[in-house]
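TEACHING EXERCISE
Course module: macromolecular assemblies
Task: Read the component lines below, then compare them to the predicted structure of the full complex.
Student: A.B.
Group: 4
Components provided:
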Amino acid sequence: MSDQINDSRRNFLSKAAIAGSITLAPGVLLHQTAHAKPDDQAVSSDTRWGMLIDTNKCAKSCTGCVDACNEEFDLIGSMPKSSEAQKTQYIRKVTLVEKQTKHETSLPMLCQHCESPPCVDVCPTGASFKRVDGIVLVDKHICIGCRYCMMACPYKARSFVHEAIENQTLSAPRGKGTVESCTMCVHRVDNGDIPACVEACTADNHNAMFFGDLNDPDSEISREMKKHGGKQIRADLNLNTGVRYQGL
Amino acid sequence: MTKRFLRISLILTGLILLFPLQGMADTPLPSISLPEGEGVKCVEPVDDIRRNHMNYLLHQRDKTVYEGIRTEKHSLANCIDCHVQPNEQGVVPAHDDKEHFCNACHEYAAVQIDCFGCHADRPQKFIKRNSQPHALQQQLNEVLMAKEMGAH
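Instructor-supplied answer key:
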């Protein structure tokens, strides 16, 4: 029932957005998304940040994005008492094998930043939330660590912090008793930079990851997706994910 | 007889009154070290920040988390950068130390704060980070990549 309501609302809003973008000059839109916002300006729903991952360019043995993420958030060595299964991972490499052909596909799996996130639906305190620019986050100030969101997430993207953490980085305050997941490097995005994983993938010259504004038809990511498509994982769930894949 | 009894009771009352006063004189006040230097000033007037710092921090916290407003003025990191410095022995006090700027008053007033469960209790420049694992991992990746390329 709630899905139906959401769908009709989404359809109405997308039509309104199309009408809005026709009335605006395309140059104005470009200008708004091409530059970093000033520090004191709130984020806006004009943008929807997303990611596109080309699995054809993603080598099975490469963990460049995972390493860059671990370094950005200082995840390595921060949880010495936790078991391997408990340790936080914002991105993990997943290998898919097609049963008939035995063809292997490797891809980085991270929070998919859904438009209708199940983690937000189930959160009893409102700690799990979606920012107006489409980034799904946890407000750890009001997270009670119940872990409903971890059970609700179809992508196994969230982790629970089991032990006390000290000397956190400025960009990633994290602590015991709260749930955390990929923030799409919100601290970098707010400063006009791209996420650490995308930066590492581009720097290593693999170019398997794109980051950009899905609402802007002229952005690199939108043009690429229009040309070659961008599949959702578990598209049947109708979540309209912000992270899309090619070559699946 | 009565006079003597009165005198003794008076002396006793005096003593009882005296001891608690002595005790009160010994109650240690919180000692906080203020940042030194020419023209160093808090972001708000001292009487205001003493009374309202929690409101400034709370307001800034929600602005940052929900709206992505990352101004420095009322941010916790900005307070920490100025107020948490190494002591004479060169040791940076931890958030549960009496010497720590926040804890000095909060322990005195018995007000527990959770900030440092998630936030660093010292300026970033005093935190040593080991970036070695990444370098090692990168080397390993390169070896693995080369192997994979060779296999094809």
